[in-house]
Amino acid sequence: MTTTYSRITGLGFYVPDNVVTNDDLTQYMETSDAWIQERTGIKQRRFFTYGKDTNASMATAAARMALDRAGLEPKAVDLIVYATLSPDYYFPGSAFLMQRELGLEGCAVIDVRQQCSGFVYALSIADQFIKTGMYKTALVIGSEIQSTLMDKTTEGRNVAVIFGDGAGAAVVQATTDPEHRILSTHLHADGRYAEELYLKDPGSSREDHFINAGTADSADSSVVMNGNTVFKHAVVRFMEVINEGLSANGYQASDVDLLVPHQANIRISEYVRQQMGLPEEKVFNNIQYYGNTTAASIPIALTEAYEQGRVKSGDLICLAAFGSGFTWGSALIKW
Ligand code: UT7
């Protein structure tokens, strides 16, 4: 009996055209280009334009690029797995809206709320459904509009300078070729740290309707992050989950051709690179240009790496993420 695996056959991304530099942010808050670059590596990010971009429209653009590169019409898709922490509506999820924009009524959609690890979780879900034979072609999405969720004053500056907007997509298809496939995925979470990086409203567990309760203007309606705690856990969990993927497949760090980490902070990526003993060219970073785009960061980075010829047939590619939840995960791919 032949074994079914899954394989990424197309990649795409979309970022809004509104470039916001570090200097631009100094209009709203006390910060500086030097502080932001030194602490995070970020030079600029993209913020969406109201009336032009939506979470689902950005995902649709990324999906169309990925489908085109896979040589597929949208109608080939039988599963959408869509990761975002910033959906267009409270419900239903943005997967439904993108499905409608692509004219894919009837196919299965799954919304994933795993924040910075969202794309790795979504990829894993697609991989499992394809390996069981239930679906053949999945669209895996990470898309975020975070610029409207942040307090862009000095009070919220530790969050507001980091996050950006954008979307990335991967087409994942069934294959019987054991040499070019997703080798394994590894997922973890620890809800004890849920409030270390979270957005409280619009939450349902309160006495009154959240707007009646006067929360719309309060700090509860902006992202809150304990950056130091997140940072300390991130560097440990990144290493753990990368090593878990490598050892599950009999590989060592030196076998990795390209690590594409979630673009959280360049200092986190650099720490992981040094721990793994990898040269700089084996770790892909583009946080400089897009900031931290949460669920979108890995598919945007993977697409750019592919476009730059840094993802080649037969390469061992490692994706790894850590973020709010806490969640963390990795995917090892033989390209
Ligand atoms: O995507 C996954 C989730 N997120 C992450 O992985 C982020 C992980 N954490 C981080 O990247 C870092 O913790 C930050 C970049 C968020 C912050 O860097 P830090 O080195 O941990 O700085 P800090 O929070 O310890 O703040 C140091 C100082 C403080 O001033 P005082 O108290 O020392 O006077 C802050 O008020 O820097 C100040 N500060 C800023 N100054 C200028 C905080 N944010 C800013 C800012 N501009 N934007």
From TrEMBL:
Catalytic reactions of this protein: malonyl-[ACP] + acetyl-CoA + H(+) = 3-oxobutanoyl-[ACP] + CO2 + CoA
Membrane-spanning segments: none
A single GO cellular-component term on record: cytoplasm
Top enzyme class: transferase
Residue ranges of domain Beta-ketoacyl-[acyl-carrier-protein] synthase III N-terminal in the record: 110-191
CDD domains, per database record: KAS_III (cd00830)
EC assignment: 2.3.1.180
Keywords per UniProt: Acyltransferase, Cytoplasm, Fatty acid biosynthesis, Fatty acid metabolism, Lipid biosynthesis, Lipid metabolism, Multifunctional enzyme, Transferase
Domain Beta-ketoacyl-[acyl-carrier-protein] synthase III C-terminal: 246-335
Keyword Cytoplasm appears in the UniProt entry: yes
Protein family according to the UniProt entry: Belongs to the thiolase-like superfamily. FabH family.
PANTHER family: 3-OXOACYL-[ACYL-CARRIER-PROTEIN] SYNTHASE 3 (PTHR34069), BETA-KETOACYL-[ACYL-CARRIER-PROTEIN] SYNTHASE III (PTHR34069:SF2)
Subunit structure: Homodimer.
Function statement: Catalyzes the condensation reaction of fatty acid synthesis by the addition to an acyl acceptor of two carbons from malonyl-ACP. Catalyzes the first condensation reaction which initiates fatty acid synthesis and may therefore play a role in governing the total rate of fatty acid production. Possesses both acetoacetyl-ACP synthase and acetyl transacylase activities. Its substrate specificity determines the biosynthesis of branched-chain and/or straight-chain of fatty acids.
HAMAP family tied to this protein: FabH
Name assigned to this protein: Beta-ketoacyl-[acyl-carrier-protein] synthase III
Upper classification of the organism: Bacteria, Pseudomonadati, Bacteroidota, Cytophagia, Cytophagales
Recorded name of the encoding gene: fabH
